[in-house]
């Protein structure tokens, strides 16, 4: 919209601001000393005015949510394998690959940090959670469209998302092989065929 | 040991220091603005010299680990029900009760934060994780002593700890009733009897 206020800093385009702010969030999250993840600290690191951040994102949670959903779409793309089991295994495989990297673990910690706090109603928290895991909702919808009966979101949360995310958050590596299939077999039951 | 250096602050006994520092950690964790959880910030809030914290705990992770294991022992006590299934359900019931409170959710977020970072070897992280969930190890050992075959720690992590912890971290309430039994039945399989 209107240009930034004049400032001693080099003026950035909106896309440059977004990119610098996203990178600043990732950098601060990576700080092993547990740096202050506040909007002023993010603004300083990104070299932008903190008013630009408030104007564009409104709150720290909204900014974090933008960062994590952008990165999740990029790092954890959605495959259409033609079956519910195949889609879930592909999702879990992407997840396992991701949490084997420091950046992937960081992203998942950021997903947790970006969730609205306890002062937010349970319904709103559940909605925000669904936004973070939009890929899982797409997998469920496609399965329903094919006439399959997908598990509930709560079942997928408990048996597929939770083990992957908790291992990322706690830094506990998944088993070396067969882990995506193991989780999906537990979730769907029955034989791994079809 | 030797008394604190003279300071304008009121001198505290070691137990008062520990209590004030623990409370400062909890307060900073509760800050919805995401306050800086650094040793200087903790020291300032607790009204103690930051050198006292470094001397006593050595690092932020060690301090957080002391806070969370102390609180977990107090808020999530271990029951001996006489069977593996009973012990696991009792543990999950305590967990569900805990994560229905803001303090309980905070504690679990702190358990995650207290885990050593990616720069630490996987074996050390796994050890630290076992320290955080010492109750689960006790339940497994008691079961083995009775001749039962408890699931592996990894199975318990994926199917019992992960769903509870992730719901706490993400602020997604567990189902209103029967959730501890549901998780334990999934973990142990078979009928819920005996």
UniProtKB/TrEMBL annotation, chains A, B:
DNA-binding region extent: 38-57
Keyword Phosphoprotein appears in the UniProt entry: no
Domain HTH tetR-type per the UniProt entry, residue ranges: 15-75
Protein name: TetR/AcrR family transcriptional regulator
GO MF annotations in UniProt: DNA-binding transcription factor activity; transcription cis-regulatory region binding
Pfam families with a match to the protein in the record: TetR_C_11 (PF16859), TetR_N (PF00440)
Keyword annotations of the record: DNA-binding, Transcription, Transcription regulation
Domain of life, per lineage: Bacteria
